[in-house]
Amino acid sequence: MRAAPAIIACGTAVLCAVLALLVPSLALAHDVARGDRAFVAATHGPALVPFLYLGAKHMVTGIDHILFLIGVVMFLHRLRDVVLYVSMFTIGHSLTLMLGVLFHTSANTHLVDAIIGLSIVYKGADNLGLLRSIGWWLDTRIAVFAFGLCHGLGLATKLLSLSLSSRGLVPNLVSFNLGVELGQILVLAVVVGLLDLWRRRSWFAPAMNGVNWLLIAAGAVIMFNQTSEYLAA
In which band, very low, low, confident or very high, does the pLDDT at 216 lie, cut at 50, 70 and 90? Predict the structure, then answer.
């Protein structure tokens, strides 16, 4: 009976991966909604509250960012560790988001999103100990920071595609970044709370193994789809 949760978790991982492969649109990294694009294009001057909302919405609806964050905090037990690792991620993506937009530095969106998919694969494999088993190891703090830079570049690339007005650019950009952080805090509050509840169950460890395989599968699907989109362009 104790093996049942692990079997269910692994079965769920396989099922979700199959569904993702059958419905490629579900595996694509998130984009900015058409209505939001129209609003940004029509905005000339500071619009702090709307950009705060857009930043929070982009994070909360971004399945790729959420999957990576789940992998980061999954086995962190102390609050200070959660704060440390999330701060490394936040500093990374805030740097490339702000500097990328201000200095008009972007990259191909499909390549960036493929790297974000890779970050999800990495975190799942790292949590499972697969990387250590082959003798390959990287300080998790450095890895989280590096992938944070990639996530921020992805956000900057998407923002630059929206034809942002130079009027009110800095305050709007700061507000958007703050919104991203608020969205991240909201997501993490839910994720960490649920993980704390599940840790009290005897089947937590085997179930989380299944979840990490799911992260690997989901990240691989994102990588495959985004790489295919890049090669087809």
Answer: very high
Non-local (6+) Cβ contacts of 6 within 8 A are: 203, 206, 207, 209, 210
More confident residue, 122 or 36: 122
Average pLDDT, the chain: 81
Domain boundaries, the chain: 47-232
d(CA 181, CA 90): 8
The model's pTM is 0.80
Residue that is written with structure tokens 């991240």 in the block = 184
Cβ-based neighbour number of residue 179 at 10 Å: 23
Q: What is the pLDDT of residue 99?
A: 92
Q: Write out the two tokens for 69.
A: 């964050």
What Å distances lie between residue 44 and 101, 103, 123, 158, 167, CA to CA? 16, 19, 40, 18, 6
Structure tokens at 187: 């997501």
